[in-house]
Amino acid sequence: MFKYLKEFAKYIWPVLLYFSLTFIGSFISLFIIMFISFRDYFFNGLPGNFDLMNLIVGQPYYIISLGIASLLGLFLIYFKYQKYMPYNPELNSKNYISFFFYGMAINLFLSFGLSPFLSEEIIEESNASAAQLFVGHPAFVILVCAILVPIFEEFIFRYLFMRSKFPHLIKAKIKKVDLETISNDGVCFFINALIQGVVFGLMHGSPFQTLYTSVMGIIFAYVNKKYGSILPSILIHIGLNFFASLMTTIPNTTLLVLIMGGIGVILLCVNIIKNLRRDSK
Fold first, then answer.
1. pLDDT digit string (tens) for 25-48?
2. Burial 93-121 (b: 16+ CB within 10 A, else e)
3. What is the pTM of this model?
């Protein structure tokens, strides 16, 4: 029974770590904002429309504290699990650049390709959610939201979450086989990928964002499995958020992100064609 609880706990503690560090970031933001608000009250009068929650989300202090929380999480995860990190020496800088542009291509599709098929309400919800997160100085937004947070989330969901052998234990017990014989079982992998994808999606804003981030979480898990490394999903995730950061924080960048997204589409199509040709041989 203990081994079942131990493996099931591997689903829970990454989420607890995620929420704990997010709480720390929010607490730091709240402290800073309260300090500044009291300072303004005593020296410049009471600020109008005082809403702490809106201030937390709507000020760069939240971005900074979220970055601190992500750094703390990456520090803890790296020093505890660095020797277990999957690494594929066959991946090179060309692959890494391609993964980044794949992320840009995916966000290009989500931002422009799906728009004609979505209601105005869904589009407004998604834009409002992005506007709340990607706020502040563009350099800070890109550093935190497009680099630190994606790396942290990938380690939480696509590494720590996927380490659980709970589905494998259940299937081994049902089939009455040794655990090692199903260590690479596809059904068990899918269950883990599905669970972490859904949990990952629930961490995001609107229902539409929850849906597509859940799907992306599952796809990321399979991409990492294919390449035997966590770096592909990290770079794709960075590309996704980099696209959103540019669009939201820097004016007149639509043409730039369209070009970068277009490059990603071309690279993705070339990669798909190469894989199809290789598989047909």
1. 777 777 766 776 665 556 554 454
2. eebeebbbbbbbbbbbebbeeeeeeeeee
3. 0.84
